Amino acid sequence: MNDIRIDKQRLWDSLMEMGEIGGTEKGGCCRLALTDLDKQGRDLFVKWCEEAGCSITVDKMGNIFARRPGQDDSLPPVAVGSHLDTQPTGGKFDGVFGVLAGLEIFRTLNERGIETRTPLETVMWTNEEGSRFPPAMVSSGVFAGAFDLDYGLSRADLDGKTMGEELERIGYAGSAEVGGRPFKAFFEAHIEQGPILEDEGKQIGVVTDAQGQRWYEITLTGQESHAGPTPMPSRRDALLGAARIVDMVNRIGMDNQPNACATVGLMQVFPNSRNVIPGQVFFTVDFRHPDAEVLEAMDAALREGAVRIAEDIGLEMDFEQIWYSPPVPFDEDCVASVRKAAEALGLSHREMVSGAGHDACYIARVAPTSMIFVPCEKGISHNELERADADDLAAGCNVLLQAVLERAQA
Ligand code: GLV
Ligand code: MN
Ligand code: MN
């Protein structure tokens, strides 16, 4: 084991400086994909990478590749990275840690004058969250061939603005083709976003798998009418249908414990007036499970139950599964590199399955890939209260550095 270690304070300071862009009063961050704030975050990342001697490539999905040359620059790079976009009430660490950990590795190697045999790349993937432009991980998905470029660029927000238009507007519609860029290996460092590591007092999660996800969009249409004169038995209340489906979604999640997750996180009620019976409701469903068969059974239960509820209330229903991301087993050799690095550094660790989606899930289709988790306070994430400890972040970054060095020399 070498004695190269990253600079904990420098990593922390960079996270805090990035967190000021879109920083919220509660100490979180709101930097939605392809907004002016996202542009500012990207500009800062590019500036830091250029100062660290990297060349920058931006592809047509706005993915940014910061490259540190290798002794043999014709070899495929060992790549690391994550995302800089956040949820509307997000934190300073989700995604940002994985990107700035890559930069911190470059800074550390530069300081020591260390060259690697293969080049290294730190990648910032566009719109991982899928909050403004569903689905999640769309740009790493285009990179990995899960979606075509037109699909990626035409994803639209609730105002109808597309990713293509917004990439042009903020100046990050790059010219490089998306994909066809081989990586020797890809590692994503991330906060756990759940409570397991903290509860067990472990510092490093050796991530072996990621669970699958299905995302749905449902529109129920009834009839808006007056809240006073319309008798209860003759109403076609779209929100009542949505409420029953929300309850059913929760029940499907509870029926498939210990591992299922089932969430309705977005709802729009039309016309949203207190004395009008709601005529139309649009909402989303997010199902997750590590086993594809259980996820399929949850899908069947949702479809069957939603039809029944809509019929009972006399509603029309438009039901669409907009995204399926199957469970992902990560590459055994990459997982072993992470485990070996944690052991060599004397860090407490355990194997785990990722509950969240990550760009690594798509990159695993085109390169040997795995992930490194560090604890976050009380397991809270997608929340302005998201916190991580500087020592844990440094530990995760050191594991990343060792795993990268092992791969980049081999
Ligand atoms: C991405 O943050 C997800 O929803 O898993
Ligand atoms: Mn993330
Ligand atoms: Mn996230």
UniProtKB/TrEMBL annotation:
Binding site for Zn(2+) 2: D94, E129, H382
GO MF, any single term: hydrolase activity, acting on carbon-nitrogen (but not peptide) bonds, in linear amidines
Domain (Peptidase M20 dimerisation) ranges: 211-304
Cofactors demanded by this protein: Zn(2+)
Annotated cofactor note: Binds 2 Zn(2+) ions per subunit.
UniProt: Zn(2+) 1 binding residues: H83, D94, H190
InterPro entries for the chain: Amidase_Cbmase (IPR010158), Bact_exopeptidase_dim_dom (IPR036264), Peptidase_M20 (IPR002933), Peptidase_M20_dimer (IPR011650)
UniProt key word Zinc: yes
Keyword terms of this UniProt record: Hydrolase, Metal-binding, Zinc
Membrane-spanning parts: none
Source taxon at top rank: Bacteria
Family per similarity comment: Belongs to the peptidase M20 family.
PANTHER family: ALLANTOATE AMIDOHYDROLASE (PTHR32494:SF5), ALLANTOATE DEIMINASE-RELATED (PTHR32494)
Protein name: N-carbamoyl-L-amino-acid hydrolase
Source species: Billgrantia gudaonensis
